[in-house]
Amino acid sequence: MKTARSCHIHTWCYAHVLGLVISGVSSVCVAAVSLFGLLTELSTFFNDSYKRIKVWEEHMQTKPGNKKRLRLERIGQTRWSSRGRALRKLFVSCTDQSSEFYSDLLIILQQVIEARDFKGSDRYEAQKMSENLDKFETILMAFTFIRIFDITTSVSDYLQTSGVDIMQAWRMNNKATESVEKISRDFSGTLETAFNFVFHANLKVEEVNISVPKSFSIIRSSRSAPESTVSQTRREIEVSYHNPVTDVVSSCMRARFSSHEKLYKQISCFDPDRFFEILAFPQNVELSLMVNAVPEIDRASLEVRMNFFDLHRATKT
To answer: What is the pLDDT of residues 182-241, one digit of tens each?
Structure first.
């Protein structure tokens, strides 16, 4: 297309670009890969077996309201939004643990492990998944991503609506980038959320012999160590787990969205819904941006074509 029209401007589907950012960051470190790999394994383990899903359904039938119908979300390879739904369904949100079913999942896995009518391979697989789910590292990484999804989901939803305002989309992306940058150095906030979640989860699993770790194993082993050693260990965890994820998201969003304000402005000028507004004030900078984007058309010809297009649209409607 560049050969046929040298001034051709190729515009990506920005909802897809945002999805690529999130999908890419889900494999930026081993902890992130392990988290989403675990979610996929859990979904497959229960959804691919009538016998195993029956254990799930029997346990959930004891729960109130809509919780009876909760199922694990399947994670699609191309739909990053499925990752957000899977995390929220399992951990709910950063502030409300009243309806999470993380603790239910631990209990259900324990039932499979102890059930002698299941094959040894099923019980072993359930044991491994339970051990991985019952790690503070898993919980912390989950809430790191949930905080990111809480910011980016609304932007993605808006980018997929019809009649989207291009500049509003850019402003939303820019604000989302700033918000991610704020949480990128708020490890203490994510850590506190994880601690609170563990407290509530442990209250719910008292009926079985399960205890969710209250911190990283390397922090727990350092409890008798000097405070300076514990602080250093937490800093290492922040650098290894939290920062790689948040830093990659914020830097990619700034590179792919925030730095392209001029392009967004040019694209927004070619929105037919803005033609009347632009033509009403021909001295505005928008018309100059359009002329610069399509240099083979002079300003007067561009105004004539826009007037014709706008008039034709008004007649059709």
So the answer is: 998 899 999 888 888 888 777 777 655 665 665 554 344 333 334 444 455 678 778 888
- Rounded Cα distance, 28 and 243, in Å: 11
Q: What angle do CA 105, 111, 113 make, to 5 degrees?
A: 105
Residue 282: name the closest of 248, 261, 257, 307 by CA.
307
Place of tokens 């990128």: 184
Dist CA 108 CA 208 (whole Å):
10
Residue type (1 letter), 70: L
- Please report, for residues 3, 70, 92, 147, the alpha-carbon distance to residue 89 in angstroms, rounded to integers and kept in the order given: 49, 8, 5, 14
Contact by Cβ (8 Å): 90, 142:
yes
State the first-to-last Cα distance of the chain, in angstroms, to the nearest integer.
32
Are 20 and 252 spatial neighbours (Cβ–Cβ below 8 Å)? no
Q: How much is the mean pLDDT over the chain?
A: 76
Query: Picking from 143-147, 211-215, 241-245, which range would have the lowest pLDDT averaged per residue?
Result: 211-215
CA 194 to chain centre: 17
Integer Cα distance of 140 and 1 in angstroms? 47
Give DSSP secondary structure letters for 169-229.
HHHHHHHHHHHHHHHTT-HHHHHHHHHHHHHHHHHHTTTTT----SS-HHHHTTTTS-HHH
The residue type of 281 is F
What's 94's DSSP letter? S
pTM: 0.77
- Tell me the two tokens of residue 97: 């643990």
H/E segment holding residue 160: none
CA distance 306 to 34: 53
Q: What confidence tens digit (pLDDT) does each residue in 75-93 have?
A: 765 566 778 888 888 887 4
HEC states along 244-284?
Answer: HHHHHHHHHHHHHCHHHHHHHHHHHHCCHHHHHHHHHCCCC
